[in-house]
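Practice set, problem 2.
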Amino acid sequence: MTNPNGAEFQVANFAAATGIKLHGKPSFDHSFYPPYSWQIMSCGKCQAHLGWKFQKKGARVLDKVEDKMVCDGEMETVRPPPAPQGDPLTVLNGKCTVSRQGWWTFQWCHRKEIRQYHTEQDGKRGQDWSLGRFNTKGAKTKKRKKNSENKFDSHVFVDGQHCDETGKGRTTEVVFSCCENDQSEIARQAKEESEEVYIRSIKEPAVCSYLLQVCAKQLCETAPKRRCKGKLSPLNSTAASARSLQSFYGLIWPNLVAEDADELYWVRNIQLRTSLAQPGGIV
């Protein structure tokens, strides 16, 4: 292969390659294999230039919905149905969750009550009291300034355990979030335990007045999905190859085999193609 600057390359073509990193946007200018676009490719570990990824114009690889599948037709975007009108927090009806904060355990139940207690060694609750009850007949929500982090009205729980310092019952404000990108240790534990609802934080901004943040997967917006209007086939299947590859990888052969380094062991997992079957011929 010779590029427009006269540089020559020995290129081996592969149907698939792993351990690589792509750079820049696909380009159709001066492609080795028109009508395929090209995109610079390097080793994902050592960063050495390995070659290029070639992709046919209009081809789309589904890397999330259908892993390692290729569509031979057009792609369309399918948007989720609109959310039902009314209070979006109704999806949490019947939900309860607990959070252990050292010696204390906090329990939140949606539209019911929040409790704080200590669990004894025998499993029984000790020093158990209310941090507020959700009163459906009184003030139950608090309008908040909505932004990207807070899209929902908060709930206010009142008339909890009597507080000697204030002479009134304890109160709690509960704020709700999707927390889709939460990277905290609490979020990690909730994911491991398959908990879709969890208490992310508990604060006491004023004496006997609490602020509790509840994260719920049910409050996250559903992202649009891509759907193939043609036929889906495995990316590395014989049928897909026979119809001509929608995409393939051209690796600079001397760069690939010159060094016996650990970073290049991934080469054993790639499938060598000595030719590409296509009318007009790519060899």
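Problem 2, part (b): a different protein.
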Amino acid sequence: MTGRRHLLTVGVLLILIGGCADQARRTGSESEASRVALSGAPAKLDFLSELHADCTFMGYVTVRTLVPPSHGTLTFEEGSDFTSFLMNNQRFDCNKQKSPGTLVKYQSDPGYIGSDSAKIEIFYPDASLDTITYRLKVGVTPEQQGAKDVLIARATLSGSTQKLDFQYAANPDCSSLGKINVRVVKSPSHGTLKVEEGEDYTDFAKGNPRYDCNKKKLPGSLVYYQPEGGIAGRDSAQVEAAYPTGAVKSISYDIYVR
């Protein structure tokens, strides 16, 4: 982000599980943001915070609803959370600590699955304002949330156990964002798949505020594959990962046993 002001968003997986759509805004701008939500559960859509370059707080924004969601409720809460400034922003180091700000939250009606939208107006401490329209996908499966399948290729030796994957979600200070629930959707045809809670090293990209977290082990969910004895060739499996943000992702494994 190159502008003084920023819009702090929580992406999927980005997190999840480690990224956001942080971008410069101009005063009076209108923007759209795509979000996913777990049906019936609270989902954080945004964290709005105004910081000086030395990470001190400039003051709370004022948020009001212009267009309410049709299938849920929108709430605004003053609190604290992690910011997500990009590496080329002078506030990048502020990401490693929680700052005051306003949380924008959405909760769908019980059992609702489908699309929803809402529009808010944000007043800043300097009297400028912006508007954001949220486009929401609400569901309990990756398909309902509009998520694309992730394909991971792995190789293993016949008769040995191989780690296929490590799913994790971390805050910029390297603390865990919460438990990730991984369930097996499709078992392998020529072996067994096992999911365990444990610790391993993360793989955040350079430029992500969590990049330094790669230097130590963090908690998460480990996926292991054990081929049947004596087999060689191709196998496959599929899991579904549910993250603390409410996002759900489908992960397919293409396994080569040699």
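Answer key, part (b): Residues 28 and 122 are 10 Å apart (CA to CA). Confidence is low (pLDDT under 50) at residues 1-26.
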